[in-house]
C-alpha cells in the first residue's frame, strides 16, 4: 500500500467544533439565557457540516479509485 493510500481521513473536528457551540447553547437554554432559535440554528449548522464531511469523503474515495484505475497508485 502506498503512502497516499495509507492516508487517514480524520474523524474528529477541530478543537472548537459546532458540537461544542451547540452544547454550550443548550446549557444556556436550560438556564433561560438562550432561545430555541439559536439551538435550531446550531443543529442546522451541525447537520450541514456533517453532510459536507460525507461529500468530501466520497469525493476523496472516488478520486483515489480513479487514480487506481489509471494505474497511478
Tertiary shape: elongated
SSE pattern: HHH
Question: In this structure, how is the largest beta sheet organized?
Answer: none
Indicate how many domains the architecture comprises: 1
Distance between the termini: 9 Å
Helix content: 55-70%
- How many distinct beta strands? 0
Keywords for this entry:
73 residues, 3 helices
What does it look like?
By secondary structure, the chain is mostly helical. It has one domain (18-69). The protein contains three helices and no strands. The chain has helices at residues 3-6, 18-30, 36-69. The chain is elongated. The termini are close together. The relative contact order is 0.12.
What's the gist of this structure?
With 73 residues, the chain is mainly α. The protein is 70% helix and 0% strand.
How is this fold's topology laid out?
Layout: H1 3-6, H2 18-30, H3 36-69
Helix pairs in contact: 2-3
Amino acid at each position: 500500500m502506498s503512502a497516499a493510500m495509507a492516508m487517514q481521513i480524520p474523524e474528529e473536528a477541530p478543537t472548537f467544533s459546532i458540537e461544542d457551540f451547540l452544547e454550550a447553547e443548550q446549557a444556556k437554554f436550560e438556564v433561560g439565557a438562550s432561545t430555541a432559535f439559536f439551538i435550531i440554528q446550531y443543529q442546522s449548522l451541525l447537520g450541514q457540516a456533517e453532510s459536507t464531511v460525507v461529500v468530501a469523503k466520497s469525493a476523496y474515495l472516488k478520486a483515489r479509485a480513479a487514480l487506481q484505475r489509471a494505474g497511478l497508485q
